[in-house]
Specification:
The protein has 208 residues and is α/β, with parallel strands linked by helices. It has helices at 17-24, 48-55, 75-81, 96-105, 151-160, 173-182, 191-194, 199-207; strands spanning 4-7, 31-36, 62-67, 85-89, 109-114, 132-136, 164-168, 186-189. It has a single domain (4-207), classed as Aldolase class I (TIM Barrel, Alpha-Beta Barrel), CATH 3.20.20.70. The chain has an 8-stranded parallel β-sheet. Bound molecules: D-xylitol-5-phosphate and zinc ion.
Length: 208
Amino acid sequence: MKTKISPSLLSADFTKLGEQMALLEPLADSWHFDVMDGHFVPNLTIGIPVLKSIRKATKLPIVAHLMIEHPEDFVEAFAKAGADVIEFHLETTPEPGKLIQKIHSLGKKAGIALNPDTSLDVASSFLDKADLVLLMAVNPGFAGQGFIDITEKIKELRTTYKGDIEVDGGINSETAKLVCSAGANILVSGSYIFNSDNPVQTLKDLKA
Ligand code: DX5
Ligand code: ZN
């Protein structure tokens, strides 16, 4: 499986968001768009108006990572604003199966996200319905946190799951190797790319 990289825009410089995206666009595979509500996670980030703006600035898929309670109330708005993939945490919604159906009915792909401490058992009955699994390697809420070693969890999931396994949090050139050899094929990376002196070169190195 070819490894894909999804830069997390949360660590971009928002005064130059369009410029930074244009520089990375030829190398990135998708954009990771982190949405936080101050309830499910102890932080607030960006939402619909920013998503609408960046939709006009890129041809790449935009992946909305919803770290919010009641994602079912918002998926339609995120779909309309231009998300191609909508990821939600299994911990946040009473009927994940219904939400996956709803995202599909909006013509979008659905991803199920699990916190580092959430067991794979929680996901087992949704694996055949969702389009991808997002495994968090940090507790969601902030960019720039240290990597929590979830390689055993990735390996376990990969033994039976043939779809996309995406890892989010603490990805740099070292941790990227670990999670890829464990079976992940999509890497989200924010601060490592955007806080580096040369984001283009850092993304190239990460891909290599
Ligand atoms: C964390 C977010 C991540 C974050 C990744 O709650 O979901 O996507 O932006 O940032 P880094 O790569 O800096 O850990
Ligand atoms: Zn994220």
